[in-house]
Amino acid sequence: MDVPPVLFSKGTARGSDAGFRYNHADGTLILEWDGGQEQIHDKQVIGVIENPRGTRKNEVQPQLILRVVVLHSSPEVTKSKLAFESLPVTNLPQDYLKRHMLTSAPKHLRVPPNADGSRNLYVIVSICSGTGEAKLYFDDVLSKALAAIGLNRDTYRVHLTKSDKSIMEIAEKIILPRANQGIQQTVVLLSGDGGIVDIVNMLLSASQSDEYIKPTIGLIAMGTGNALANSSGLNQDATRGLTRIFRGTPRSIPTFTTRFSPGSVFLTDEGRKTESLPLQSGCGIVYGVVVCSWALHASLVADSDTTEYRKFGAQRFQMAAKELMAPDNGSAPHVYNGKITLYKTDERGQEIAEEIPDTKTSYIVATLVSNFEERLTISPASKPLDGQLRFLRFGDISGADVMRFMGMAMEGGGHERDDMAQYAPINGLKIQFAESDSRWRRVCVDGKIVQVEEGGWMEVRRGNKDVVNLVV
């Protein structure tokens, strides 16, 4: 039976008589009462629950619409852009209830505590992620939404990050030991992609016991690019991913492994300092869940990772790209030099190595996701958490062509089908660098920058072990 495009019911809202019109096609609920109306879009709604403080009258159960309200779009971080509202109503249209009704807190948020009373539900607030809104979101939205479904502050533990090492320390000291003891854990993570990457790197760098249980992560997108959230459907509404935490299902997060030649180092403190890479069999090793890149992409991530650039959010990448494409000295953009070998599976199911004859590259990424930003669809064939590593490469092309292709990616794709593009599923790839200037030997692994020594190499492969779940 076809559902009528607009459903109508009469009830109450905020204690007053009201009519409800729900257009399920465009996802808009209109509240009407004498003298006015209000619209609530599905993209604002976390869910609908029974009102525990309401009084049932004439068999009508009072309910609450849990939603996120957008207050403003000002870049000023000291003011909350979002607020939480618990709107009391009765007699909502049945189709609306079918779409949004929550009968209880999801299982992954009802993790039992340990025998000593310590909690296995954590909220990690990454203070410096993105433009620094995570703490405001926790105070004004998340904590109130959790309380609405019966999860008060004594049911979970809050961790506020103190440095860029905080999340890895929490993973090492709390999450890893409990996972190895077979303890179910859930982390509500207010962070960008880097927070999940830190957890994954810590868990994969250690051994897992036979009793190991993968921790579940509920991600609130607080970064600048938010590639994982945008590619897995978490960031498609106004709640930053909170709706999926309340209504989603845990799925395994695919990973990749990047190995580097000896002598490679992390660049930190805006490129002014270096740190050693974790070692395995004498080589540096870094794990990722989003992208490994070289050339333009790695350079723009590295150049834009400054306090000044981060004020501009996701726009920082476009600003850095323009500077790389049109250097101040009027010269042409740099074309990167190195030998690239692809690892693919042939028609017989055997892995083969395929060397790219052209050693000149302007842009190359190996990625597990479709979108690097909300609108930047870099790998259109990628599906949410499908685990397929894909590579995209452009050889020696002009700055104008690069910007043209990025413009196409901002419109949903098409760049990958151009004759200048190489785009395909792969098992992995290896780059042997032929650059004397260290600036052109920088590699990006999920936002972390690795500088490879002169004459060195890197290799990325799809990981064979996934260690965390993501609620989607």
Largest sheet, in brief, is: 8 strands, antiparallel
Count up the helices.
10
Helix content: 10-25%
Strand content: 25-35%
Radius of gyration of CA atoms, rounded to a whole number: 24 Å
Mean pLDDT: 93
Q: End-to-end span in angstroms?
A: 29 Å
The beta-strand count equals: 29
The shape is globular
Classify the secondary structure makeup into a structural class: alpha+beta
Report the uncertain regions. none
Write the layout of secondary structure elements.
Elements: E1 6-13, E2 16-23, E3 28-33, E4 36-41, E5 45-50, E6 63-70, E7 82-90, H1 94-100, E8 121-125, H2 134-148, E9 157-160, H3 166-180, E10 186-191, H4 193-204, E11 216-221, H5 227-231, H6 242-247, E12 250-252, E13 256-260, E14 265-268, E15 273-276, E16 279-280, E17 283-288, E18 291-294, H7 295-304, H8 307-310, H9 315-325, E19 336-345, E20 351-355, E21 360-361, E22 363-367, E23 390-394, H10 399-410, E24 421-425, E25 428-433, E26 442-445, E27 448-451, E28 457-462, E29 469-471
